[in-house]
Predict the structure.
Amino acid sequence: MALKVPVLFGSMRTERQGIKAARFVVNELKNYGCDPVLVDAKSYDLPVLDKMYKEYDAGSAPPKLQQLADLYRSADGFAIVTGEYNHGVQPGLKNLLDYFLEEYFWRPSAIISYSGGYFSGARAAIQLREIVAELGMPAIPSALPIARVASAFDDAGLPTDPKFRPRSVEFFKEFVWYMEALGAQRAKGVPY
């Protein structure tokens, strides 16, 4: 059975380039026995957080939030694609993440970071590790950094550097290992 993986992407910009990296992740996860689902913050267009999903009475959450809650509960792990804005994660991604909490518990996350320059979103990735740990979906040890994202992929998410895909293999294998390991443990029960 395929591993369900929401691929969270947070850029809300008009001329965003990171969507190419998100498409790469979606396409690549299919090669590792996964069923990826792109969760694009721009498509969901959630307002700035006022009320978390869990704060709604049963059956009264907005349809977009209910759809995400159902997806997240079925997830085996989360792939998170983040750009770096002013040394931090994108506000659209942070907003998307903050709507939920328990739905993330006991599932690993994999961080894919990017930037328009050579630092590959490394500072955002460091910040995101702390955020996802607090949300109960710890990041796997490896990360997948992407420099010069505008030219790193074509519009469909295919890498322009033939060496990029082989360099990403261990990252995806590690993510699958963690999803399987934590899935086995969730099946036995969780600490609380």
